[in-house]
Structure formats: C-alpha cells, structure tokens
Amino acid sequence: MGRSFMPKIRTERELKRIQLEGLQRTANHIYKNSEFYQKRFDEAGVKPKQMKSLKDISKLPLMTAQDLQEGYPFPLKSVPFEKIVRIHASSGTTGKRKILSYTQKDINDWANMFARCYEMAGLTTKDRVQIAVGYGVWTAGVGFQLGCERLGALAIPIGPGNIDMQCQFLEDFQSTVLCATASMALLMGEEIEKRGLKGRIGLKKVIMGSERSSEAMRMRMKDLLGVDDVFDITGLTELYGPGTGIDCIHHEGIHYWADYYILELLNPETLEPVQPGETGEMVVTTLRKEAAPLVRYRTRDLTRLIPKRCSCGSILPMHDRLLGRSDDMFIIRAVNIYPGQIDYILSNSKGAGSEYQIHLDRKEDGKDYMTVKVERAEGRNKEGDTILMNTIEEEIKKQILVSGKVEIVDYGSLPRSERKSKRVFDNRGI
Ligand code: ZN
Prior knowledge:
CATH superfamily of the largest domain: ANL, N-terminal domain
Strand order of the largest sheet: 4-3-5-6-7-8-9-13-12-11-10
Largest sheet: 11 strands, mixed
Helix content: 25-40%
Structural class: alpha/beta
Bound molecules: zinc ion
Radius of gyration: 23 Å
Order of helices and strands: HHHEEHEHEHEHEHEEEEEEEEEHEEHEE
Number of strands: 19
C-alpha cells in the first residue's frame, strides 16, 4: 500500500478548526497581496482580523465569474509572477475566458486532492488508469494524470477519442480504471460489445466527469464494460480543476474536500444560506490556494448537502450530484424550480427519454400552469404512455411540491442541439 491522502481529522470540531485557520490565513494573504481583494474588502468595510469564527465568512463579499473575466489575463493574482508556474483556462458562456494561475504548492495540493479521489474510489498502486479525457489548457487530463502518479498507480494518458487505440490499450495493458466523460464511456462500452472484447479486458471501475448521467446510463455502462462501480468526480477550473470531490464505494453522495475549501449553499435569490438538505447554489472559498484564491465564489451550480455521515465513516461531508444551474431557475406558484430537478426525475423514470421541454402558461383564471413535454424512450411503444405520464406527474408533485401536466411525445420529436438545448418556455408575459 502507498501513502494515504485522507485527512488525519477525527472530529467535526477539528475539521472546523482547520477551516477557520485556512479562512484566516487566506483572508490575510489576499488582503495583503491582491489589489482586487483589498479593494473588495475595503468596499465591504471588512478586515481580515474580523474572521473570528466560521460564521464571519458571511461578512465577506461574494464574487462571480464576471470578476474573473474583468481581471483578464491574470485575475485574482495574489503572488508575484516568479511564483506562478502554470495557468489554466475555463471558457465562459459569454465574454472572456477565465484564467487561473497556480503556484507549485497549488499544483501539489491539486495532485494530493486528486490522489484522494482515487483513494476514495478504492484505487491502489496496483491499478492501471486509462485516462481518456482531454488534455490542454482546459484542466481535465493533466489533473487526472497528476493524481494517478501521486497515488502511485500506473497512468495511461491516451486522451479522448481514438476508439481503436482505446480498445487495444484496454486489452493489452489490462487497464483496471477508465476515466472518461459519461458519453465517451458509453461509446466505449458499445464498441467493446460490438468487438466481443468484454471477456478479454480487465476494467473494474469507471470514473467520470460531472456530466448528466442517469441511473439507466450507469446501469448500461456497468453492463457493457463489465465494471463494478461508476464514480462521479467533481470540480471546476476556478477551484483547481476536477478532483475536488467524488463518491466512495457506497455511492451515498459526493464527498468533498472540506479541508481544502468551504462550501456554502445559498439561495440564489436572497443569497442567504439554505436549510441543510435544501437545494442551493454552491459558493466556494479556498483555504490553501496561493496564486488565485477564491472567496465566496458563486459557481452557479446547484446541489444540496446530504446531512448525514456516509456508511464509509469518513469525516468528509457529502453533497448531492449537481442538479443544474441557478441561471436556469424559474418560479411557478411561488415555488423555485430548476430544470435540473425535472431532469433528475425523468432520468429516474423508466421509459422516459432524455429530451424534454418545460412550458409555463398563465390561464384565464390568473393561475400559472406548467406542462412538461417528455420524449418516450427510444424503442418503447405508446402503450406505456399513461402509466409513464402518471408516474412522472406524481414524482413532480412529491419531489418539487408543485403540480404539472405531463405529455409524452414521440422519440426524436423534440429539437436537439449540439449546444445546450432550450428547456424552459415561459409564455406567461410580464
Ligand atoms: Zn463514503
């Protein structure tokens, strides 16, 4: 066995102490060394020495992707250039790229966090990891590789695509772990089946980046590739990159590295913390980052905390899978709804396809109505429509606490797009 990358923390109190120390250290560091943060703190009338308890984090100003874009090309820079050893970029949906700088220590911390992901997923130095995600200025691949080597497992840095070579490597090197996007992993599974390779490869686990994946997709992946486990790894470039959390072999939620960053879940409207277990926007504050620390950075990603200890016993807390983006939220009958919540229900409804639309209308009675159009899954006949419709309507009522009408439409009848499809059609006027 190699070394362990798990924190040597026994109690929640100890974890909180580490978080407070990290918060104080970070606040002092950026106030002293970053013009951007000094200005922000001064505008908010807050000084680093006011960070006396973890609750004091709420005194600090929030920041958004726009702050990073406006600081282009070296936003949040908090160390001299001599200390910066690398940059990575993250594409914004609008405007300039977000560039993040790293010191050698930042890179080291990232590798340790990523090695912890692999350890959490049960990998050892005996594993052979086929890394089929992209390499380059967008962080993915290099993080997967660094963490793998840090753990002491064998890295096979093949990158995405190139199915022939992927299949050959799986067979020749007897890779035990495949790191890929969900769609790439599924594609590989189909190829392996087509080529009759299943009995000749040695895959045990798939680790995939956080892309939407339904229970059905996971089942199919397990079946086609013959693996025991499929893991969800999380992360975003602003926060080092992928590798800041993963589910363990119990799959009860995504453990996140609370000793490296503080995760707050805020109501995106009021910016107040949500109740434990309620859906909110992920807001992160780094505790150890040097070159470009984040303070209360609004990620726009939505999830909920899982307020219980995992069966594995780890002190590291858990959040749910990502449930969508706060930008996509809409309100109907005073209830905040995210398309991700509908998506989640559909992905767990047998017989429902993955394409859907949400239509919002205001009728003569002055009330708002929601209709969800859902495609029937490929290859299913119309006979099951009524049952499917009723099941989804019940789930929406149960999980989102609002009534909606469900219409089942033919497979392939809703428009598809390469980019993100438009899901919500609000016809209610002003
Ligand atoms: Zn666990």
